[in-house]
Amino acid sequence: MKATQRDYAQAAKRAGGRCGLYFFCGQDEAGASAAVGKILETLGEPGERIDLSGGELKSDPARLVDEARSTSLFGDTRHILARVAGEEAHDAIKSWCELADRGEVEDGWPIFIVATSATDKSRSAKLLIKRDDALVAIFYPPDLKSVTADVRAMADAAGMRLGGDLGETIARAAGLDVRLAQSEIDKLALYLDASPQSPKVADGAAWEAVGASTEEDGFMPLVNAALGGELGKLPSELARMDEVSLNPVGVALALERRAAQLASLASRWRAGSDMKQFLSQNGVFFREHRDVAAQLNCWSGGKLERLVPRLADLHRSLLANSQTAQLLLARELTQIARYAAARR
């Protein structure tokens, strides 16, 4: 089955319990990851999560099926989440399809694959699109309007009505990342003691009170310094990350999103075109034109194809090493900035 980010939930619901493998692809890794959470909510008790990387599946394709058919030590339920880049999971998916056709994974645990930089036209997706026991959904980079609507829906579910343009403010502060936006909504609901049974109105004052990030102390100045090769700015931005306690994972997510945006733009850019007009036509916020244009000059399409999976690996490393996350992030940002600086 095939779906988009708008109708994947309905497609999954129509499929009932037939789906054994969910392949979420496209440039919006945050949206795809959020979709995994929504699908898990409909499956009942998700149980233990087994994390797999693209490298693990590429070197050992049988690992995916083995994990899907294995049992936990205490017999609890489980699900498998694999974060891969491009076609890293192709051979593992092919193996799953062959065993599924023989009826050998009917009782297997659900598999979720978030495939950064893959599309619904990829070889991996083509293995699954015509199957009734698999769902392929593609997630495009969100725009401000759609994320604002998602933020308002999150607030409604949490028992809050957002006053004025607070929904848009939260969407911008989260860098259009629905996971970060959900985190901010959760903090705001906790601060207001809001719930569906006891709804509250959230305004700008409440937003400021919970210490929401502002544009001045947000992620993007650090992201822009790294991807733009601004070695003169990077030390002060790294110091600011420590001073204002920026979340390393949040910075990494913002970095992933910008890299995916650059990859998409690079594939459509034609030499000699008017850059400002090109960026406007492709939905880049006008205040970001200068930074995005400079970064496009530093990164070619081929280099971006290697950068995107590298950032996905960085994200996983930060989650697995929370105590040293800031150090790991600073080292990676420095390496990225040095590479970009050499091509400015």
Present the secondary structure layout:
Layout lengths: L1 E3 L3 H8 L5 E6 L2 H14 L5 E6 H6 L2 H8 L8 E8 L4 H12 L9 E6 L6 H4 L7 E5 L5 H15 L1 E3 L3 H8 L4 H15 L7 E3 L1 H6 L10 H8 L6 H10 L4 H21 L6 H7 L7 H10 L2 H20 L4 H17 L3
Parallel strand pairs: 1-6, 2-5, 2-6, 3-4, 4-5, 7-8
Low-confidence stretches are 212-217
The Cα radius of gyration reads 21 Å
Discrete helix count: 17
How far the N terminus sits from the C terminus, by CA atoms, comes to 44 Å
The CATH architecture category of the largest domain equals 3-Layer(aba) Sandwich
Number of domains: 3
Helicity range: 40-55%
**Can you write the helix and strand succession as a string?**
EHEHEHHEHEHEHEHHEHHHHHHHH
Strand content: 5-15%
Q: Describe the strand arrangement of the main beta sheet, using strand numbers.
A: 1-6-2-5-4-3
CATH class descriptor of the largest domain: Alpha Beta
Overall SS class:
alpha/beta
Number of DSSP-assigned strands: 8
Would you kindly provide a written description of the structure presented here, covering whatever features stand out?
The chain is built from 17 helices and eight strands. It is α/β, with parallel strands linked by helices and 344 residues long. The chain folds into three domains: 137 residues, P-loop containing nucleotide triphosphate hydrolases (Rossmann fold, 3-Layer(aba) Sandwich); 66 residues; 122 residues, Up-down Bundle (Zinc Finger, Delta Prime, domain 3), CATH 1.20.272. The strands form two sheets. A six-stranded parallel beta sheet has the order 1-6-2-5-4-3, sandwiched between helices. Helix 11 packs antiparallel against helix 12, helix 11 crosses helix 17 and helix 16 runs antiparallel to helix 17. The longest helix is centred in the last third of the chain and has 21 residues. It is globular. The chain starts with a strand and ends with a helix.
